[in-house]
Amino acid sequence: MSKITDEILATAIAFVLLVPNWCDWKCVRRMGKDKLGDTVKQFQIHHPKAICGKFVFDMEVNAKNLVDAKDRADLNTNCCLNDRDSLKEISPFPILNLNDCAFHAAFSKRGLLYELDFMLDVRTLKTVLSEFKEFYGEPDRMWTDPRDQSKLTFIDWTRGGIYLDVQLSRLGRDSDHPNGEPWLETVSVSLYDVDMID
User: Fold this and answer.
1) Where are the alpha helices (DSSP H) in the chain?
2) Where exactly are the structural domains of the chain?
3) Helix (H) and strand (E) counts for the chain?
4) DSSP label at 31?
5) What is the rounded radius of gyration, in angstroms, for the C-alpha atoms of the chain?
6) Rounded distance, CA 100 to CA 81, Å?
7) E strand or H helix at 181
8) Most-buried pick from 26, 128, 137, 152 (CB within 10 A)?
């Protein structure tokens, strides 16, 4: 081998060994057993206790509002999973069940999964960061609170039209109001493909 070939090979090996795990688009489109592009039937096989149906847009998506509306092709199918044991398979962290839809899946009119979202019952992004980095690699962006640079508020991974957003969320009434309750900070997770939405 020539000296140039040896140098190129050594550089390539060093790059592979030194660069942190980088998740390609196939990796980012997965969350647990589910992957964007799965059908409703595949989702139901993965999560037999999920409640699936269609909902009218002026209502909130929850298990009670999902109806069997096969004649309504203009409405997308959504699924809600609330079973505690099933939720433990999705995340090692506890998932909050707000509005009777703890783990939400949205499907396109073609019946393909384009969004998964849920809220974790943890108070900081740092609590979940290592778990996400282990599977997805280094995030593309990490934002902190401008008032407190040590407080992580948003991380994401982006591959084309596929986004995985993990962000600090606040629930509750305005804590600045004299009768207001303090905010409850949680972590919301959303995986979606903007190119699949129809």
Assistant:
1) 3-18, 25-28, 40-46, 84-90, 125-136
2) 25-196
3) 5, 10
4) E
5) 20
6) 9
7) none
8) 152
CA atoms within 13 A of residue 102's CA, in its CB half-sphere: 21
Kindly report the backbone phi and psi dihedral angles of residue 149, in degrees, each rounded to the nearest multiple of 5, phi listed first: -60, -15
pLDDT for 168 beyond 80: yes
Residue pair 167/154 in contact (Cβ under 8 Å)? The answer is yes
Three-state DSSP at 101 gives: coil
Strands 113-120 and 141-145: unpaired
Q: What phi and psi values does residue 194 have, to the nearest 5 degrees?
A: -65, -25
- Give the whole-angstrom CA distance, residue 64 versus residue 51: 9
- Name which residue leads in pLDDT, 92 or 6: 92
How many residues appear in the chain? 198
As a whole-number percent, the residues of the chain with pLDDT over 70 amount to 75
Number of Cβ atoms within 10 Å of the Cβ of 125: 22
